[in-house]
Amino acid sequence: xxxxxxxxxxxxxxxxxxxxxxxxxxxxxxxxxxxxxxxxxxxxxxxxxxxxxxxxxxxxxxxxxxxxxxxxxxxxxxxxxxxxxxxxxxxxxxxxxxxxxxxxxxxxxxxxxxxxxxxxxxxxxxxxxxxxxxxxxxxxxxxxxxxxxxxxxxxxxxxxxxxxxxxxxxxxxxxxxxxxxxxxxxxxxxxxxxxxxxxxxxxxxxxxxxxxxxxxxxxxxxxxxxxxxxxxxxxxxxxxxxxxxxxxxxxxxxxxxxxxxxxxxxxxxxxxxxxxxxxxxxxxxxxxxxxxxxxxxxxxxxxxxxxxxxxxxxxxxxxxxxxxxxxxxxxxxxxxxxxxxxxxxxxxxxxxxxxxxxxxxxxxxxxxxxxxxxxxxxxxxxxxxxxxxxxxxxxxxxxxxxxxxxxxxxxxxxxxxxxxxxxxxxxxxxxxxxxxxxxxxxxxxxxx
Amino acid sequence: xxxxxxxxxxxxxxxxxxxxxxxxxxxxxxxxxxxxxxxxxxxxxxxxxxxxxxxxxxxxxxxxxxxxxxxxxxxxxxxxxxxxxxxxxxxxxxxxxxxxxxxxxxxxxxxxxxxxxxxxxxxxxxxxxxxxxxxxxxxxxxxxxxxxxxxxxxxxxxxxxxxxxxxxxxxxxxxxxxxxxxxxxxxxxxxxxxxxxxxxxxxxxxxxxxxxxxxxxxxxxxxxxxxxxxxxxxxxxxxxxxxxxxxxxxxxxxxxxxxxxxxxxxxxxxxxxxxxxxxxxxxxxxxxxxxxxxxxxxxxxxxxxxxxxxxxxxxxxxxxxxxxxxxxxxxxxxxxxxxxxxx
Amino acid sequence: xxxxxxxxxxxxxxxxxxxxxxxxxxxxxxxxxxxxxxxxxxxxxxxxxxxxxxxxxxxxxxxxxxxxxxxxxxxxxxxxxxxxxxxxxxxxxxxxxxxxxxxxxxxxxxxxxxxxxxxxxxxxxxxxxxxxxxxxxxxxxxxxxxxxxxxxxxxxxxxxxxxxxxxxxxxxxxxxxxxxxxxxxxxxxxxxxxxxxxxxxxxxxxxxxxxxxxxxxxxxxxxxxxxxxxxxxxxxxxxxxxxxxxxxxxxxxxxxxxxxxxxxxxxxxxxxxxxxxxxxxxxxxxxxxxxxxxxxxxxxxxxxxxxxxxxxxxxxxxxxxxxxxxxxxxxxxxxxxxxxxxxxxxxxxxxxxxxxxxxxxxxxxxxxxxxxxxxxxxxxxxxxxxxxxxxxxxxxxxxxxx
Lengths: 448, 343, 402
Known about the structure:
The structure holds 3 protein chains of 3 kinds. By secondary structure, chain A is an alpha/beta fold.
């Protein structure tokens, strides 16, 4: 009854104070707590899955949610265990996390930072979530990461590709498994030079917001290092749907390669428009005109249909990978849902396992203990080969896949083929690399 | 020079899309006086008519592929459209290839039905209600229609290509004596332009030269008097609504190869179409068309690299900037009628 | 009381009581019960209720009284948020200077945009305000990124040069907004049996601001100035003939309502120090229009109700997932359970927009005066004896919507 160090709702679910509380009202002040925000009770722990359920990325969000549900099932000992059996760490045993059954709450980010924060806050304040994960854009990831830092819970980023997430906007409580713009550029450039030669003239169309800027910069500097020349870089509004007026002048500029720094609906439309203009059938400077899409996802490739054939890009993970981890994940996801998982699903599933594993190894849910367990942690068997969670910026370093739109897809999921697995050394950069400058991790926050 | 010709082409193409979308809206909003926030949804439903038709054509049954396995190691199956069985593989493939143009025939009755049901079932009761109520009810309707589409088709864009015959682009540059490959334009966009011109012309002719059109125009000007003459104006307004829905829907059908349709494409166009209609002037059909082209061409010019370099961000705001300038210099837009929606 | 008529005073008092006891009223279900999903009494949502209430009250001063429909009002909310966050970054984490600057800045923007836009009326006015807001959104999202933070929003950082105050707390974290040491995020909890009630500093601060705003809005509604605004709505021409120039009055109303929006923006930033450009997108402007209409245009309390309804849907309905549904209906036989879940499922979670759309349509079809009319009808059903005394719901209504 006099347990003033108890926090929030998790306690009540256990019923520990329910009886006592009946008699005497208990006054708990959040600020006077020792311990950490939303410490779970003895029987269960709640995770918050914050994904876009409405708006243009709703399908991506739905796939993320499937992966989370699968991860929870595996953590609680259900299903075939998926990647838990191939994971290099063996501390997870199917009895939940630290013996507590994993429960979850879901929310809708609407791919807007305000809505995402509102949703995350309700998970923290109302549902007592101890960790927030998800999202499918960098704006949302950065916003929610900052919120989690302030509230004192761990944030495991979902799909976010901007350098800023672990660059100038990094936070001590936030962790990213997904790769970033710099890695895309570093992995793509050699493959492009190999396939298209080193004397290309590139024309960039860039989505006019943070992610677009970092991607343009990354691809530009890596390709220029290979000998390419950048003819022009034009910013396109986020709300643009018809890119004809941006694509039409490309041929006149004397460029022979078009780089589309677009994602989601922007990318589907700009690529469709570019192919429609017949750019790929043209010859410029005696070379075939080429198009490059730095960040690919299977769901987007599906939206662009046949237009992706033969177009290079990079991706975090693809279901056709043949390592044990990927095979195990594809099998259990495919068995449950009937189709292969997307890269967004993969990163979300992995992030959940990594969190659970870190808690288990730390022996505590306290965010600082979890962060410590994740920092500098090396693991394998989760589909990307040997991976390091770097302590300096909480970014995962792993191999990056360079992919190409498949010429003869055999099914609606078989749209990309892996061209090269770029080894991790080629995409590793110093923590103070110019593209990641500014900002600081700060110190981890345990909250109340 | 060639860059400017190219952007004029672009502007005409964009403008024809804007004009076509605005035309349907101005029939309802500019003339019937209903603030129809569901207009974008009508455009979207039109686009999904094309998606639906191509899906119907591609309805398939599974055939086992001997000797191969799918990603889970189960025996692999291949989908064979029924249409191949009925018409043979080459004719069947051609029908699927042409599903977007064929969807025009499919969309006209569907859209007229949607429009008439909407008007009879809902909008009819809102002619005399305040604009605020019209906004709320049509916005609600738009959300409901969108969500229904999302429920069945998902949120991802769905590729709906034009027939193979229209793939690639036409080289204007070579025709006009410039270097080849400097002024190229996709065939399908030229088709869209021609189609838009045709529809716009047809709607004008219908309202200008038929008795029906005359009565409707009279009804817009003075509904009461026309009613007193014993003419059933309500019925004609219903037909007008159906017509507007059909125009919006056809604009959507033909737009699908340009941008893969998704469930919120209507909302993306909604604000823009209101801007076009108002800039054109309330109650004026020619105004809406003119405004569509003006905004389309100016938007194209503003997206030129040379222009953005001088004024950063101009491509982001051009449409709204032009709208503000026009509305401040011409009180009722380009060709607006006095007293329509001014209070 | 406070210079109000009796019925207005009663309404204000009622709102004050409701707001003060909101942590109890919004948490009617015990923790851990199946219905706890519908509890809305957690700080973030309660804050949103009152903040969007302020936004809608302000919007209603313009739209409800003068009939001028601004479709770009969210721009002022955005300006207020940006101003407040910059104040946190540069001056102090105290919310008062942030709020003062935010209100001043949004007032300035409203003066400029209002001065230009009010040269036109009706739909032309609406499109002008929309155009200004869309321009501000587009620029804030892209080329103004150094000032606004662009896509990721304007955030506090560890190296902010805060003149009055520290850049970092002793623990190495970013300080949180507060009022003279009272942190906005501080909460106290009261545990009664299996109920938990949360009393949040930020909520009560925002609630007091909201009550003051509400009081001011009543005063405006009842003042000669408010009378003048209503005259503009009913017949501007007649007003012109009497030799009165309506423009200064509408402009004043526009600026006041813009400042309300800025105040709301500043409070949002105070509760959660982040300002994103999406706050200025046309859908955000549309949302406040919908809130006002949903609640009841031109009524005092309607916009607050509308704001509450929409925010409740957005935050509560969207969080229900199929797991929770199965939990609720677990008592049914298996086949029936799946059937019931399958029927409800499209309306919850990712389908919350569908429910929202249906509610919009339902309200406007069956309750032409908005939620306030619904309240009146219920009041009329139960409280016949008070009919002579004009019940509180009715007193809120100053004029039918048109």
